[in-house]
Give the backbone structure.
Amino acid sequence: MAHRTYDVRGSARAACPPSRLTYGEVVTKAVMVKVTGRVQGVSFRWYAAREAERLGVRGWVRNEPDGSVAAHVEGDRPAVDAMVEWLHRGPSYAAVRDVAVTEAQPSGATAFDITY
């Protein structure tokens, strides 16, 4: 089964390996985040992608089979920290119970995608 990714505007495109960073660009922080609670069926991924775009972070967000939401977030340290803070709250219809954050390797993502 081919994976598809969707950008913030909802346009589908075939999944492909992440692009590498351009010369001189530095990613200072990357994290993996798992959010549990009432986080599926409440537009969590869509709002997360909007917030990521606003903050200028890159990566992806997806629903997990166990009912959680997973995200990979990378970018400037203050922006990544702000995104993680937002993930602790989520959109108004969500009820976040727990957020687990682990350091990760930068993937070289050039956008923030909703993946399926």
In short: The beta strands are 4-6, 12-14, 29-38, 58-63, 69-75, 95-103, 112-115. The first helix runs from residue 44 to 55. Residues 1-6, 11-19 have pLDDT under 50 and may be disordered.
